[in-house]
Amino acid sequence: MTIRAVYLSTIAHSTEDESKVRAALAGLTPPQLRGSLEITSSAAEGHHGNRIVLIQAVVNEKGAAREAVDYMLKILPVGDRLRLKDRILTFYDGQSNVFIRLSKQMAFLGTARLSDEDDVIRVRIGLNVRKNDLSSVLEALALS
Q: What CATH number is attached to the domain comprising 84?
């Protein structure tokens, strides 16, 4: 029951400073990983024809993915960690992924908050767990 990888993605809208959005995304990873974090971006067109930039990063080195998840959960308020634990079925796909959405604005300020808004940083945590084994998922996330 291990963390295989952490995938982070978000959108920088034309009204946003792309460097600040990149900083918000990087801020969800531990300081010791930020220097080696490869953040990629690609230009795209939004729903109304406006320019957007898709920003992504992957943490998949052995041990680094575990560190990233531990850090993210550490900066997540207790209430949000409890929500994640209590509603794990909302976030877990039943296979090998946990999907969470975090506030981009709060990430820029150095903390993490679960968010149901549209303008978020999407996090996919890839797990090596048995299918539909919720206790293994909670254990892998250190939420048991």
A: 3.30.1440.10
